[in-house]
Structures are given as structure tokens and as C-alpha cells.
Design a protein that fits this description.
The complex is a heterodimer. Chain A has helices at 2-12, 39-51, 72-76, 90-94, 146-149, 160-170, 192-207, 225-236, 283-287, 328-347, 399-421; strands at residues 31-35, 56-60, 65-67, 86-88, 99-101, 105-109, 114-117, 122-124, 127-130, 134-136, 177-182, 212-217, 240-243, 253-255, 260-262, 267-268, 272-275, 279-281, 297-298, 312-314, 319-320, 356-365, 368-379, 382-385, 391-392. Chain A is an alpha/beta fold. Chain A folds into two domains: 2-135 and 280-352, FAD/NAD(P)-binding domain; 138-277, FAD/NAD(P)-binding domain. A five-stranded parallel β-sheet of chain A has the order 5-2-1-9-20, with helices on one face. Chain A has a four-stranded parallel β-sheet with strand order 13-12-11-17. Chain B contains four helices and no strands. Classes of the chains: A alpha/beta, B mainly alpha. The interface between A and B is large, with 44 and 30 residues. Chain A: Residues 1-29 form the signal peptide.
Chain lengths: 423, 97
């Protein structure tokens, strides 16, 4: 058991060796274990290091790179390679003294304050931060399972699925229809499907004739809707069509082998179907009992400590943060608040929470972006938008406004990635 | 006896509040450096090394709409004058919180 972890640790980088199994929290330095190395987990690790120089910080992450979902629609649209979305853990190890263990958490034992690793052994913690992102709910749409996703990609976790959707898009011929199926709330990245629609239209409008992007939605309204619809019309005419849930847009059934997608009343056989299925908190959180019946994890909005298991904080897409959307920006800010709450609790200090921000840019074309921003306070037991603040980019803006927002979007991406994994 | 307890509670709160406020200001300021990163070259200006007074003046101008903005007006309106002052103090003091 120890041998297998050691071998993996050596492959993954020397620092992970320190996180040998069966280490207790110890009498001196406290230990915090973080589950998941995405925007939430990586940012939490760095924030904890800033707060407590001698803290043991152990990040458990099964992949040697994180591939970000932000930016992945641009890869689908052909604006850049997938590799530019990849972020490794070297700086977390070398600059910030984080022990990165390349493994999956098989179980969280909240009473014993330890996590069990899939590869064997366990790691004890004083506080646990769980940031597992989402998992996809297979067969919620009848016929949509992992095998179907190899034909009708979801591309809602970035990586191989992103590359697959790009390849499938390149194979779409003149006159082809691309269907994007969008789930009901809540789901990861509320504006993401609509950004994707625009960037797919951008690709098709430049390389093909007579193509169409058909969004089949379970919902009757969506994030930044007026801005997207204004932009699609200006950039692509009537090429992008949105069908609401009330307009019979909810996809209920697919058949990957035959290539069709069904709503309650209509069947479509598109050249390419991108099915974004309903989602839950990452499996590890659900299995630990951190999620409620809706599949996501209720938390104290001031500290992001689980409402169901004390000593465990849940951040990012997996948690229910009131009005804060499931976004990288939310995960970043939640990570900092949770880390500060953890640091205060380890030091026996009171903790006063702070307002949080979400900032989100969406591209409609390489030089055309729109944004939404919000400031969120704790009110009525949840994170609620501060009245009078936040909102979307102005409607009817000059092209230079959207061009500037595209540049800011690139700056935001570089900054938030540097904030998580190092510059 | 009861009045002594109340007095003690007030004293404890009074002693605790500056530290709490400090931590809150730092937490709020840490959201700024996501975009205004001191670590990378970006179209968004770094705030490192700027005096707190300059940062506060710009934030207040975003807040009251007197300075043209992209998203900073939408964000600044979410904070009180006192909060913006505390954030500017953090950013101005350290550049990178």
C-alpha cells in the first residue's frame, strides 16, 4: 500500500512523497486536506498558505494537469489549442509548499476526520475543503450515458471531450445543423452553452455555407439573454436559433447510434449533437453525504462550511451558494473565504466573513464579448446579490465596447489562472 | 453582576473589531487582484504600488458613475464608502494582498 503510493508520488513529483498514508494530523502543525485541484481547490491551497506559513496543506487530485472549462468554448470554435487551457501543480508544490497527491478520494470519513484514497491508505485532517466540481447525471436524458457521450459529446468537463467536440464540429458539412441541448438550473457555468453557440456559429459562418446552430433549452430564460440575442443577430443573422422550454425545447431522449435527439413533440437528426446533461456535485461529495436531494451541497454562506457535516467546507460548483452562479470566479472567491474561515478556526479566532464577487465574460466572436458581474453578501441565510450593484454589459453598445470586453476576458483568464496555479 | 457581564462583552467586542475589520478588508481586497494581478502582464492594470488615496478616489468615481467604466461601476456600487476605503487601504499598503 505504502509502496504503491510512493511510486505514484515519485511519478507525480517529489513533494507528494511527504503525504504518505496513515499520517495523523500530528501535534505541531495542523493539516488541511483539499479535495480537487480546479479553480476552487488550487486557490484555497494558495490562500491557506498566505494565512498560515507552517500549515500542512495536502491537495488530492487525480489528474496531473487541470484543463479549465473557461476558454474551452474558444477551443471548440477553433480559436486556440486545448493545451492553452492546461495548468499543472508544479508551482503549488515548489513555491507554496503544497503536498499534491495524485490520487482520488474514495471516501470522506467525517467523524474520524480523514479521507480514504482510492489508491489505498488514508490522510487525516483538521479541516477538509471539498472542491470536486460537478458530475454529469447519466440517463437523466433517456439514452444519454457515457457511451452516448463518445458520439454526442457534452464537453462540459474540459479535456478529451472538448477535443472530441472540436473534431466533430470540423466534420460538419455545408447545410449541417448543430444542436446544443441545455439543462435546467442549476448547472455549471450558466452562460456557457450560449457562448458555445456563438463560437460554433463563428466557426461555421467562416468555413461552411447554410449551417445552423439550434439551442434546445429546458429553460425559459438564460444568463445575459438579451446580450447574447443582440450579438447573435448582429454577428450571424438568423443562424443561431434558441428554443425555450415552454417552446418545447427540453431534450428528453437521445439515440446516439441513430443520431437523433427528441423533445416531447419533435425529433431532430442533426449533423452534430452537443448534449449538456443535468448535473450534480462531484461524486465524492454526493457519496460522502454532503449533498441534499437536489444533488448539490448546502453550506453556511459565511464560511462555506457544510450544513450537513461539521469541519468540512464545500466550495465551487459543488456547493449551493444562493445567488452566486457556478463559475470559476465564484469558486475563486469562495475558496478565499473558506480558507480564511478555516485559518480562523484553526487559530481559535472569530471569523467575520466578507462580500464576494462574481465576474464572468462570454465571447460571441474572437473580438466580441459581453460580461456579467455581481457582488454578494450574506443575507437571510444565503448569498444574495447586493441591491443596486452588478448587472450585465450595456445593450446597444458600440463594437469597441465588446472588443474591449474580449481583451478584458483574456486578462481575466490569465489573472484567475495565475491566482490559482501560479503565474 | 449583569452590568459587569455587559461591560465585559462590550470591551471584548471593541477589542476584537479592528482585527475583524482588517481581515474583512483583506478578504475583499483579495478579490481585486484576480483581474488586477500583480503576477502577470495583462490589459487590466496592476494596482501594485499605487497609493491608497488614488485607488479610493477612482473607486468612488466608479461608484457614483462619474468615471466611465466597463464593469468596475457595477462592482463598486456593491460596497459602502467605508468598505471601499478599507479595500483601498489594503491594496495601497501591499499592492498584492
Amino acid at each position: 500500500m505504502i509502496l504503491s503510493l510512493t511510486r505514484r508520488a515519485l511519478l507525480g513529483g517529489g513533494a507528494a512523497l511527504l503525504a504518505a498514508p496513515c499520517l495523523s494530523a500530528g501535534a505541531k502543525a495542523a493539516s488541511v486536506v483539499i479535495v480537487g485541484g480546479g479553480f476552487g481547490g488550487a486557490t484555497a491551497a494558495r490562500s491557506l498558505r498566505r494565512a498560515i506559513p507552517d500549515l500542512r496543506i495536502i491537495l488530492v487530485e487525480p489528474h496531473h494537469l487541470h484543463v479549465t472549462c473557461p476558454g474551452s468554448n474558444a477551443v471548440v470554435g477553433g480559436l486556440g489549442p486545448l493545451s492553452r487551457l492546461e495548468h499543472g501543480y508544479d508551482q503549488l508544490r515548489s513555491r507554496f509548499g503544497v503536498e499534491v497527491v495524485r490520487d482520488s478520494v474514495a471516501a470522506i470519513e467525517g467523524d474520524a476526520r480523514r479521507v480514504r484514497l482510492l489508491g489505498g491508505g488514508w490522510i487525516a485532517y483538521d479541516r477538509l475543503i471539498v472542491s470536486p466540481g460537478i458530475d454529469l447525471l447519466w440517463n437523466e436524458i433517456e439514452g444519454y450515458d457515457e457511451a452516448a457521450a463518445a458520439v454526442m459529446p457534452h464537453a462540459w468537463k474540459a479535456g478529451g471531450q472538448t477535443a472530441l467536440l472540436r473534431r466533430r464540429l470540423e466534420a460538419v458539412e455545408d447545410g449541417g445543423v448543430v444542436v446544443i441541448a441545455v439543462p435546467g438550473n442549476p448547472f455549471r457555468c450558466p452562460p456557457g452553452p450560449y457562448e458555445r453557440a456563438g463560437l460554433i456559429a463563428w466557426h461555421l459562418s467562416r468555413t461552411r455555407r447554410g449551417c445552423k446552430v439550434l439551442i434546445l433549452d429546458a429553460k425559459d430564460s438564460f444568463s445575459k439573454q438579451a446580450l447574447f440575442q443582440e450579438g447573435w443577430a448582429a454577428l450571424y443573422g438568423d443562424m443561431v436559433e434558441w428554443v425555450s422550454g415552454a417552446g418545447n425545447g427540453r431534450v428528453v431522449r437521445v439515440n446516439a447510434a441513430e443520431g437523433w435527439v427528441e423533445t416531447d413533440f419533435d425529433r431532430f437528426t442533426p449533423a452534430l449533437a452537443n448534449i449538456i446533461p443535468p448535473q450534480s456535485a462531484g461524486r465524492v461529495a454526493v457519496a460522502a453525504g454532503l449533498a441534499d436531494a437536489g444533488g448539490f451541497c448546502p453550506v453556511d454562506p459565511a464560511t462555506f462550511e457544510s450544513r450537513r457535516m461539521p469541519g468540512i467546507h464545500v466550495i465551487g460548483d459543488a456547493c449551493m451558494a444562493g445567488e452566486m452562479p457556478k463559475s470559476a470566479s465564484s469558486a475563486n472567491n469562495q475558496a478565499k473565504i473558506a480558507a480564511a474561515a478555516v485559518a480562523a478556526s484553526l487559530a481559535g479566532r472569530d471569523f467575520a466573513t466578507a462580500k464576494a464577487i462574481n465576474v464572468c465574460y462570454s465571447l460571441l466572436a474572437p473580438d466580441y464579448a459581453v460580461s456579467v458581474a455581481g457582488v454578494y453578501e450574506v443575507a437571510g441565510g444565503r448569498r444574495a446579490g447586493v441591491a443596486g450593484a452588478g448587472g450585465i454589459s450595456p445593450l446597444g453598445a458600440d463594437p469597441h465596447v465588446h472588443k474591449a470586453e474580449a481583451e478584458y476576458a483574456a486578462g481575466w483568464y490569465a489573472g484567475i489562472c495565475a491566482d490559482a496555479w501560479g503565474a | 453582576m449583569r452590568s459587569l457581564a455587559v461591560f465585559m462583552a462590550v470591551m471584548v467586542l471593541a477589542a476584537a473589531s479592528p482585527a475583524r475589520a482588517d481581515g474583512q478588508a483583506r478578504l475583499m481586497a483579495e478579490t481585486c487582484t484576480v483581474c488586477h494581478s500583480p503576477e502577470i502582464h495583462s490589459p487590466l492594470p496592476s494596482l501594485a504600488g499605487r497609493p491608497a488615496g488614488d485607488i479610493l478616489r477612482v473607486l468612488l468615481a466608479f461608484r457614483d458613475g462619474s468615471r466611465p467604466a466597463s464593469i468596475m461601476d457595477r462592482i463598486a456600487r456593491g460596497y459602502s464608502r467605508e468598505e471601499l476605503g478599507a479595500i483601498a487601504g489594503e491594496l495601497g499598503r501591499k499592492g498584492a494582498p
